Amino acid sequence: MRRVIVGFGNDLRGEDGFGIEVVKQLQKYPLKNTKLIRTFQLTPELALELQEFDEIIFVDAAHSDTNHYTLACNLEKTNQNTISHHISIEMILSILNSLYDSFPIFQVYSMLTNSYDIVKNQEKYNENIIKTVKYIKNL
Amino acid sequence: MEKKKIVISPVTRIEGHAKITIDLNEQGGVDDARIHVTQYRGFEKMCEGRPYTEMPALTARTCGICPVSHVISSTKACDNLLAVRPPKAARNLRRIINLAQIIQSHALNFYHLSSPDFVYGFDAAPEDRNIFKLMQTNPDMAKDGINLRAFGQKIIEELGGKRIHPTWIVPGGVSHPITSEQKEKILAQIPQAMEIAQKTLKYFVSNLHRFQKEIDNFASFPSLFMGLVNKKGKLEHYDGFLRFIDSEGNVLEDGVDPIFYKDYIGEAVEKDSYLKSPYYKPLGYERGMYRVGPLARLNVANACGTPMADKEFERFKNLNDGKPVLNSFYYHYARIIEIIYGIERIEELLKEPETLSDNIRSHASINRDKGVGCSEAPRGTLFHDYEVTNDGIITGVNLIIATGNNNLAMNAGVKQVAQAFVDGNNITDGALNRVEAVIRCFDPCLSCSTHATGIVTSRIEVRDHNKQIVDVMHRS
Question: In CATH, which superfamily holds the domain spanning A3-137?
């Protein structure tokens, strides 16, 4: 099983950097058959790298005006038709399926937040990073 | 029938957030139409008080698609503050990364934003006219778009360390040289990139006959054109001089050093948009409307300067018997020619022995209190203008973003298309799609002018003669 973990977000934008921080922490561990990717955004050409993997784990910060610091594993269906220089998880999976005949299993680990200026509660933020790292490395 | 207003908001398949309003008269005809940029920017104010050395990194954050363009113009403004000229290797490397940026951006616009219109036609149902359908019916074309974009992005990553917001370009030059291995790695990708570009050109040219009505009506009108050209008057994206021409091809200004841009370009602000409306000063606002970007660059240039691009450049010039091409639909054509030029030019620059030199940075302290940097971004001419204290602290910033230069022309284009295709008594999706598509010709990057929140979708409003909204349509 070849696995890739994609942490995405902007670590200069407060809690949007959650996915990036999780991947940075995961780099400290010897994860077998696992590639780690940190990126600001998901882009169409990322599909070229992801097509060879059997499993993809996406880690990001998801917008929510309630339930801050809740860890979630859902994939809301929103604006599937939208494409820009950055794309959604659904879009990149669709590209993999349609163009590269690649049907990886995938998981999404999101921390819900609406704070993109600062890390509002450092303790909870760190706690979520540790929790997510622990979970992923024990998969 | 009473007067109505149609509003398309936000406009889809563009970079950023905008809406279009269309005013209908009592007969259902179009009286006026305008594009409104509804995002707010603020970089000019945010940067005040920061050291000039931070400007390339700060202003790169203006945009996630063309950060390299901002870094290029910003570092050139900083070079100007230091009164230094980067060494030849640094200039070549900056040129390479700038062209890589242009290639990847043009690829995204052509293959993923605009090609659904070319493949399925402007009247196709929205559920069929999108990238998902394209992936199903034309997977090779969708893959070509990804591969060409990857070509540009990999060069940016190879040189700049990362694909988005690289910090490798610094005041005075670049932070590290290119290695022979990196050079060979990039060169190895050139044949595939060129094959894709040529295939795309063939597809586009052979399908042009299907879009004669769009060619005739998509922002097809007389205007001025502005762009950088080199000393020989050829296509230039990094350095050179500003050239302004009129719609007949007469040169109005030539050899203008971009640091004097304010003598030629005025900046108007309209009450219904956050996007500035620059104009050619001698003709005043709005007569001084000009266009920038791929179409303008090819119109102002005497030649591209590379063999394959020049071959197509000749055909492009013949579209209007050697006079400037006025139809904005041909922005797409110009974009493909620029992709070909970019690939050829990158190869040439990589093969210049001096590009591998270790002499990559000039060092100096602040020598001027004002500095201007100018380059050609994918969407047109980009200006960064800084004022600093003796210690290099920024006290004033003026940015003219490529897309802003086209604001007046985009407005005129939206009106022309709306008048040609929109019938207030029978508003069709195909007509509204064309109103959006004319904007896509210009490939505006509104996120560049502002900062987007959320996802780009679309909304259309209808207003009566009292400017009251009587209907709203959402598109996504």
Answer: HybD-like (3.40.50.1450)
